[in-house]
Fold this protein.
Amino acid sequence: MTDPIADYLTRLRNAIKAQHRVVEIPASNVKKEITKILFEKGYILNFKFVDEGPQGSIKIALKYDPVNRVNAIKALKRISTPGLRRYVGYKNMPRVLNGLGIAILSTSKGVMTDKEAAQLKIGGEVLCFIY
């Protein structure tokens, strides 16, 4: 697999389209941090790290509106790819849907949202947009 973050986003996207309640994804440290951010921002219902086998996995409970069965996540978009890395400074932070969505960045201080990185005045690699 050449792009594990794109695989993570694709598995989430496919589970949302199939309206699954839970999706299981192979774990890595970056994927765990992205999952924690999604939980803190209210895009997923819950998550659990399972340490079985050499790699482990992440079980994510997806969040749906109980009446309309609409997911909290509207879109997941990969920005920086292995073939073309996208870096931004803190002054040029991307705005996702005029601040309604989040951009997830990989910085020298760890994986964080665009707003957290702007407050700390650090830039980094833009991993994905979520809204």
Notes: The beta strands are 22-26, 44-50, 57-62, 76-78, 87-88, 102-107, 110-113, 124-130. The helical segments are 4-17, 29-40, 114-120. The longest helix spans residues 4-17.
